[in-house]
Specification:
7 strands; 7-stranded mixed beta sheet; alpha/beta; Rossmann fold; globular
């Protein structure tokens, strides 16, 4: 019996109409766990991400600082309401249709996001996706240290983590593998798979996709 095909999905601006990391910081300001200055810093970081110039170390320290010293249970009490109230309305139903089509065809589905796993895992559970890659967060003595465990799941780091996941799950190579993403930051993994799909791509990814004859999918945002 042959191995089922693998469909990999990015999260932010691919499955979601927006960015979960960015939305999380603004949510933390709204519930008074961060001050208003964090929103301005958040805007700077999202611009760097969109430009493909994000300093991931600096950003991750910024994004994880609110959870410093917290246990997983304490963090969940913050993030689960966020998923319900903020993320739920951001889910693109047309992206869900793509996921369901792969599921109906018997394909394995993997969610691979640069966002930290504190956020990605609850979202994956909401989406019914069992296989998840996010940037791993370090815990010491069951408390968040505010650090991530390299590599990050951004750019070449995402490719490395996907390769490791594939090896663990007996996927020998990228033949028959599809990857959906909006971002130029995901170029290393898009170049590796057999079927790269640019979903509502940023300007840089759109240009490369057109040049290389990759499929470009424009999902409505409603």
């Amino acid at each position: 019996m042959s191995k089922p095909d693998l469909a990999i999905f990015d999260l932010d601006n691919t499955i979601l109409n927006g960015d979960s990391d960015y939305s999380m910081i603004n949510y933390l300001v709204d519930i008074n766990l961060l001050d208003e200055a964090a929103k301005l810093k958040n805007d700077e970081f999202i611009q760097d991400y969109q430009d493909g110039s994000l300093d991931f170390n600096e950003y991750t320290h910024f994004a994880l600082k609110p959870y410093l010293g917290m246990t997983q249970d304490e963090i969940n009490k913050i993030i689960l309401p966020f998923v319900k109230t903020i993320i739920e309305p951001m889910i693109n139903i047309f992206a869900l249709k793509l996921i369901h089509d792969h599921h109906d065809n018997g394909h394995t589905i993997l969610l691979a996001s640069a966002t930290n796993e504190l956020i990605v895992k609850p979202i994956a559970e909401r989406l019914g996706i069992n296989h998840v890659i996010g940037t791993k967060v370090e815990f010491k003595n069951n408390q968040c240290s505010g650090e991530f465990i390299p590599p990050s799941a951004l750019g070449s780091g995402k490719l490395k983590l996907v390769k490791a996941w594939m090896k663990t799950h007996q996927f020998d190579d990228f033949s028959g593998v599809t990857f959906y993403s909006d971002s130029i930051n995901d170029l290393p993994l898009l170049e590796a798979v057999e079927f790269p799909k640019a979903v509502n791509p940023d300007i840089k990814l759109e240009a490369i996709s057109n040049e290389r004859k990759w499929e470009v999918i424009y999902l409505p945002r409603i």
